[in-house]
Amino acid sequence: MATIKDVAEIAGVTVTTVSRVLNDRGYISETTRKKVYDAMKELSYQPNELARSLFRKKSNIIGLIVPDVSHPFFAKLTSYIEAYAYAAGYKILLCNSYQDSVKEKDYVEMLKRNQVDGIIMGSHTLETSDYLTPTLPIVAIDRDFSNNIPFITSDNYAGGLLATNLLLDKGCKKLAHISGPLELNTPANKRYEAFMNAVLERKVQHVVEQTKLDVYESYKKLAYKIFKEHPDIDGIFASSDMIAAAMMQVSQELGKEVPRDIRIIGYDDVEVASLMTIPLTTIKQPIDEMAQLAIEILLNQMENKKVEIENILPVKLIERKSS
């Protein structure tokens, strides 16, 4: 295997000069630079990226931790983050935590050991804030850690009001809201707060069920449970499009016609929402803008620029046939 010394000999320069070319430090003439690169090509030499990152104190790698990249929201978010990171000269190291706090902690420590330049935290467990300290640039998605770590979220309260009031304005008499796990105390809980304020103000019967990020079949089981216990529900506000899709499928399996017998609204506006047999009304999160802002905040932190801790982006009601 070729070494940096071999490259120096072929190029007719010193090892120090090769190192300066590889790390882009100091003045190097274009002629010398070309000699080094030609020698590297001739020898099929691959520089040691870890050594280079230690020398430069910069890896150009960003760690991204998500609960499950197969989930449509996080798949879309990951795609946008990777694109914006690459455009800025960074690669993404993707970690799936599956909402396992031990695995999540292991990933955070691994990313730190591998000298990543920053971390985007899209996974949420109760124990996270105990070990996630801003010793390097960090930005969170939909989680306020309350320890000076910037976070990005959509206007969940406004989204909750838009969804709940639309169902009420359509004449629904008994609503169900399927929320995420409220004990996590994430900004997404404001969807629940908005729902509760709206139904209490308008004195409407309501049911709230909590669920975690899970597989589609689990959402269907929850839907069967809800309809068995509350067969008179005629409006559902789900905290994700995947949950809403499961609610719609089970509704139809039970002979409830959408939207005649039951109206359903999701949250996120991932691609599946518009492709369903009955297109889903949903609250659109600006996933593209959230990803772009996450990279922007990390880059500003790397440059020691001041960043906003709380970053709330607007949402939009996308009305389709399910409501």
From TrEMBL:
**Boundaries of each HTH cro/C1-type domain copy?**
3-50
Instruction: For this UniProt record, give its keywords in alphabetical order, as a comma-separated list.
Output: DNA-binding, Repressor, Transcription, Transcription regulation
Where does the chain cross the membrane?
A: none
PROSITE patterns given in the database record: HTH_CROC1, HTH_LACI_1, HTH_LACI_2
Database matches in InterPro entries = Cro/C1-type_HTH, HTH_LacI, LacI/GalR-like_sensor, Lambda_DNA-bd_dom_sf, Peripla_BP_I
Annotated HTH lacI-type domain ranges read: 2-56
Which Pfam families does this entry report, sorted A to Z?
LacI, Peripla_BP_3
CDD domains xref list: HTH_LacI, PBP1_Qymf-like
The domain of life is: Bacteria
Q: What is this protein called?
A: LacI family transcriptional regulator
Source organism of the structure:
Clostridium zeae
